[in-house]
């Protein structure tokens, strides 16, 4: 399950950033390394909410810095909550 979630998260990153998957490192900071401004960050999190049919609270978003942080959060969220759909 974790690998499937990771692939889906990376797919969303690729779509939002318009980059190839091999250009996105798991330890990359979304703010400094990937240079996502606040608008791109919100676009990313909305796309993740759509992909996984889960809500990501704003207070959680500000604490997520790396691609791996986001993947870990989504894995935990997917495992803990039933789908809204």
From TrEMBL:
Keywords: Phosphopantetheine, Phosphoprotein
Domain Carrier, chain residue ranges per copy: 1-78
InterPro entries, alphabetized: ACP, ACP-like_sf, PP-bd_ACP
Biological processes annotated in GO: lipid A biosynthetic process
Entry's Gene Ontology cellular component terms: cytosol; membrane
GO molecular function annotation: acyl binding; acyl carrier activity
Signal peptide range: none
Gene3D superfamilies given in the database record: ACP-like (1.10.1200.10)
Name of this chain's protein: Carrier domain-containing protein
